[in-house]
Amino acid sequence: MHAPTPPRPVPPASTPAANVSKIIQEGGTVEPVREILWGSSAGVRKYESGEELPGDMRKLVIRLMVVQADTEFASIQQHRPWLDSAPTLEDRWIEARIVADEARHGLQACRVLRDFGEDGQKDIDELLTKREGEHKLDAFNMKFERWSDVGAFTCLVDRVGVYQLRSFQECSYGPLARAMPLMLSEEQLHLNFGFSVLRRMAQYGPKYSGSKDEAQAAVNKWYPRALDMFGHSNSDTSRRAIEYGLKRWTNEEARERYIHEVTPLLTSIGLQVPTADFDRHIR
Ligand SMILES: [Fe+2]
Ligand SMILES: [Fe+2]
Questions:
Q1: Phi, psi dihedral angles at 173 (to 5 degrees)
Q2: CA of 10 to the centre of ligand 1 (A)
Q3: Which of 8, 52, 101, 240: CA 20 to 30 A from 216?
Q4: pLDDT digits over 4-40, tens only?
Q5: Distance between Cα 96 and ligand 2 center (Å)
Q6: How far is the CA of 52 from the centre of ligand 2 (A)?
Q7: Structural domains of the chain in order of their starting residue, each with its CATH number
Q8: Measured in angstroms, how far is the CA atom of residue 45 from the centroid of ligand 1?
Q9: Using an 8 Å Cβ cutoff, are 67 and 246 in contact?
Q10: CB 167 within 8 A of CB 254
Q11: Model's pTM, two decimal places?
């Protein structure tokens, strides 16, 4: 049983909606934003503890954090074999750094879960038992068989992660909103690295590692899984997450933005982008 939800402060007469686009365009703020910026409670003070959250929103935050933590821990398992077999010294060092970053992101998501007492702890205990092949999203149950998989995964799949995190930026749950800036800056390194692996493969072939064809095959393998990660286009969960001020975009909006970003990036290094319906499992 949860404690009854305490009364919420009354919203001011004017909502800060006009500030939202400015804050978001600038990629966040230095001053912490104390009000909910969008959704049905826009203008009200943000939620700061698990006990304050209304029942359905509480369940949703827990669910979102379990998926988030699961992807972080899963990617450590995927990267692990490459810590000492990446092609160059610098690549090995970045692999080590990525693993450390993902461990920290998992810890951060679990800290949010801990705020939900026994329920959250039960989820954390379960997350720690998950082995390869037992994770929630397909992209995190696939092995990195070649170095090109590492490049395409970090370029394409970590980038979806960035969209998910940006969707939580300045969200209505304070502890989650405050975890975002550091996670986002670290993820940026991962996806820049992934792009540089694909670029070097396409540009230098075996002088670096693999070949342009191998890079293309890896793009064809991971791009559909990346698009799937955004979830169903008509998802009721994503609609509720926006209403609660937790997420900014619907699944389809985020997927469209992603395609728009990735397409020129891959074509700039001579790689083809598969069509949006190629090999998709979730629509
Ligand atoms: Fe991460
Ligand atoms: Fe990452």
A1: -100, 105
A2: 36
A3: 101
A4: 555 555 444 444 455 565 566 565 555 678 899 999 8
A5: 12
A6: 31
A7: 54-267 (1.20.1260.10)
A8: 28
A9: no
A10: yes
A11: 0.88
